[in-house]
Design a protein that fits this description.
The protein starts with 31 loop residues before the first strand and ends with a helix. Helix 7 (568-611) packs antiparallel against helix 8. Among the domains are: 124-185, Roll (SH3 type barrels), CATH 2.30.30; 376-561, no CATH class; 564-660. Strand 18 (341-344) and strand 19 (348-352) form a beta hairpin. The longest helix has 44 residues, at 568-611. Strands 1, 2, 4, 12, 15, 18, 19 and 20 form an 8-stranded mixed beta sheet that branches. Strands 27-24-22-30-33-32 form a 6-stranded mixed beta sheet, with no helix packed on it. Strands 23, 28, 29, 31, 34 and 35 form a 6-stranded mixed beta sheet that branches. The protein has 663 residues and is of the alpha+beta class. It is elongated.
């Protein structure tokens, strides 16, 4: 049967902290909370200082909902590196009621408490006493069954439950609607019901539980205790104050104390990272499922062997992940606002709050993170889907703080105005140290722009061989933004274009690429104009089969392919050579056909000459005809050689010209 976990949150992880040296000397009992590390992964590390009792033990009081995470992450360390070492023996878990299955070792299950009839059916055979509204004495007996009887009422048929009891006078039925009270006379059944109800209340309660850490430390030995608990995510917020020549960035963090402990003079550290967080029901009772087999073998029973589950299926606990340790504090230089000390590891950034904090459990507070001068420049930004009008007002912000900045909302203020002016709000993405980000916070109404686009296909390379033209085709897309300013201050310009797969920029050469976008940059003078342009190209290949009637320039034009002007004389020459090649091939075909006809005629004449052996005028005429045909065959051979040379020369020149058509 599935039991609800007592953990307050479904998220859990092992965010391990190397406890910093704690205060020396004996600590008052109970353990004192003096360090808190809050993570954007939704976990909080609580660090306590404590002192061993006479038997070497330390008792730590926690809310029941934190037990799972505490058992997963509890860490015990010497509070003083110079103190004698000690060994851990065990940790006793107080409050067994919270750890047990409420229905364990009872005949009941969760479905039995769904209603009165379900409970009575489960308690079949138990002795009960029933008080009704129509009899002075209770009706007693053992529960036999719950039956439902259909009755007519106001023209409708309804079912009513009746309780059937076996009593001293035999079987009796009591309508449950007439029952005022039911008492269990069966002490075992009453104990089982009481146990389930008491455990259920404990499982839902916010009672505190005690972890007793047993060690072999001598009395008075200072100890450091640390554990993870589920915690609200701390929330950064930023103020960007625009100044002449730059800006000032102030960061604050909103922190909520839901740790179950008051924070009194606590060292607070805030960690920003993307740690994986897991949870595991360590306070839940788990059993391994076992199959059941019959007492007698299959051939004796005479039916297939049946496997019966020994109990409800149990899900396997999830694996837990170990996380690397964090925390090394480094103070910033003094500033008007008391900044947090920032440090950075490969996976996270930490902000250690300079002054100890005080806030009661269930309370909230806001603490300063950063107060630094940073580089900032006003930008008129054209978004990727912009087609004209007013560009976006944006800031190109450089993170000069030395640490990565977590994502948060930014309030942009102009301190150069006669009074501080709210310019707009933006979202600061996660920004590594030294990186630059754009913050768009409104529209720049004193600047207008329009966009023109031109898309065309151009031939960048051409090869003609064996009547097939292989073309490398470039799909060129030109964008041009024209800006007009009515402001007395200059602007930096940026046009954002989505970087598509397979598309490469041609101009400008100093194009910036960030997060899947190209940025075309420029400058706009005060009350002036400026133009930005971007040419991109997507390469491709096409093949054309050229027939005798095709002129190459006509074929290219029909396909909408633009030809570079420098190629046009060559294209015309290719077309002329292709015509010459086709004419030579046609001549070769004609000469071949005539030769075959002459050969057939000579065969006929020779057959006639064999039939007439005697000399005469007819035989003489046939012999003369054979002579003339031989002369024509010799002439055909010369003409064929000339046509073949003309064709081969045209092909050679075509190949040479095609090789020149490369850009």
């Amino acid at each position: 049967m599935r039991v609800r976990s007592s953990a307050r949150s479904g998220a859990a992880s092992l965010l391990c902290l190397l406890l910093l040296p704690l205060h020396q000397g004996l600590a008052a009992e109970p353990p004192v909370l003096d360090q808190v590390v809050m993570s954007t992964a939704g976990m909080g590390w609580l660090g306590f200082r404590a002192t061993a009792e006479a038997d070497g033990s330390v008792a730590l009081d926690l809310p029941a909902g934190q037990l799972d995470d505490a058992l997963k992450s509890l860490t015990v360390l010497p509070a003083d590196s110079g103190s004698d070492g000690f060994r851990l023996r065990q940790v006793s878990i107080g409050g067994s009621g919270v750890l047990a299955d409420p229905y364990q070792d009872t005949p009941l299950n969760p479905d039995d408490l769904a209603g009165l009839t379900a409970l009575l059916e489960r308690l079949r055979g138990s002795e009960i006493a029933v008080d009704t509204d129509y009899a002075e004495d209770p009706v007693t007996g053992r529960i036999v069954a719950i039956e439902r009887r259909a009755e007519g009422q106001d023209g409708a048929v309804i079912e009513r439950p009746w309780l059937v009891l076996s009593g001293p006078d035999g079987l009796v039925s009591v309508e449950l609607g007439d029952v005022e009270a039911i008492r269990l006379e069966d002490e075992a059944a009453q104990r089982a019901l009481d146990r389930v109800l008491e455990r259920s209340v404990q499982a839902r309660s916010d009672e505190r539980r005690t972890l007793t850490i047993h060690t072999d430390a001598s009395q008075g030995t200072p100890l450091g205790l640390g554990l993870l608990v589920s915690a609200p995510v701390w929330k950064p917020s930023w103020r960007l104050l625009l100044q002449d020549g730059g800006a000032r960035l102030q960061g604050w963090a909103v922190v909520e104390n839901r740790s179950g402990q008051d924070w009194d003079d606590v060292r607070l550290t805030l960690v920003d990272g993307d740690a994986t967080t897991l949870r595991q029901d360590l306070t839940r009772t788990w059993f391994r499922e076992r199959p059941s087999v019959p007492v007698l073998p299959e051939e004796v029973v005479g039916r297939p062997l049946a496997m019966r589950k020994a109990g409800p299926a149990r899900a396997e606990p999830a694996d837990m992940a170990d996380m690397p340790a964090l925390m090394a504090a480094e103070a910033f230089a003094p500033a008007p606002v008391v900044e947090a000390g920032g440090s950075e590891s490969d996976l996270a950034t930490s902000f250690t709050i300079e002054a100890p904090v005080e806030v009661a459990d269930e309370g909230s507070l806001m603490v300063p993170l950063v107060d630094r001068a940073v580089s900032a420049a006003r930008v008129a930004l054209v978004p990727a889907d912009g087609f004209g009008g007013a560009p976006e007002a944006a800031i190109r912000l450089g993170n000069d703080t030395g640490v990565s900045l977590p994502r948060g909302i930014v309030t942009v203020m102009d301190e150069t105005a006669p009074v501080p002016t709210h310019l707009g709000d933006a979202v600061l993405p996660a920004t590594p140290a030294g990186a630059e980000r754009r913050l768009s916070f409104g529209q720049d109404r004193k600047i207008r722009y329009d966009l023109t686009e031109d898309a065309r296909r151009e031939v960048s390379e051409l090869v003609v061989a064996d009547g097939i033209a292989t073309l490398l085709v470039a799909e060129r897309h030109e964008r041009r933004w024209r800006f007009q300013s009515e402001d007395d201050q200059p602007r930096l310009l940026e046009a954002q274009v989505r970087a598509e797969p397979g598309v490469a920029p041609v101009t400008p050469e100093d194009l910036q690429r960030e997060d899947g976008f190209w940025y075309v940059r420029g400058e706009l003078p005060a009350r002036g104009t400026a133009t930005l342009a971007l040419v991109t190209e997507r390469p491709g290949e096409e093949r054309l089969v050229l027939t005798d009637e095709d002129a190459l320039d006509t074929v290219l034009a029909a396909r909408g392919l633009a030809v570079p002007d420098a190629w046009r004389p060559k294209i015309d020459e290719i077309s002329a050579l292709a015509t010459r090649r086709s004419a030579a091939e046609q001549d070769l075909a004609t000469l071949s056909a005539e030769r075959e006809a002459i050969g057939a005629e000579q065969n006929r004449i020779r057959a006639n000459l064999e039939a007439i052996e005697e000399p005469g005028p007819l035989r003489e005429r046939w012999l003369n005809e054979l002579g003339r045909q031989e002369d024509r065959l010799a002439e055909l051979m010369r003409e064929r050689d000339e046509a073949a040379r003309a064709r081969d020369e045209a092909v050679r020149q075509l190949r040479a010209l095609a090789a020149e058509l490369r850009r």
